[in-house]
Design goal:
The protein is about 20% helix and about 35% strand. It is of the alpha+beta class. It starts with 6 loop residues before the first strand and ends in a 15-residue tail after the last helix.
Length: about 100
């Protein structure tokens, strides 16, 4: 199985928003495809809510930028696996606060 098969591609509805690959097993982990100045970077992001009922509690954490999609996808899968191993998280959940080290 290729890394790409572990993700769902999400095309942006607006050209001011970057498309992304969402990790199917953990939709809170994404690879953002950032293109500017003739360069493409792939940024691994994690996002969620401290309180799912409060839109103001949304958080986003950048886990690094990569030169290739494959490298970013590998980092995203590794991040999700580490969270599961270290925190016992389930799909779409996260026990650590966004400011705590993972």
């Amino acid at each position: 199985m290729s890394l790409k098969q572990l993700f769902t591609y999400r095309q942006a509805d607006d050209e001011s928003v970057d498309p992304e690959y969402e990790l199917t097993a953990n939709p809170a982990v994404t690879v953002q495809v950032c293109a500017w100045g003739g360069r493409i970077d792939y940024v691994v992001n994690e996002h969620g809510y401290d309180d799912p009922n409060d839109a103001g509690s949304f958080w986003l954490k950048d886990h690094g930028s990569f030169d290739s999609l494959a490298s970013a996808m590998f980092a995203a899968v590794t991040l999700a696996a580490a969270q599961t191993a270290n925190h016992g998280t389930q799909q779409g959940e996260r026990n650590a606060k966004p400011h705590e080290p993972i």
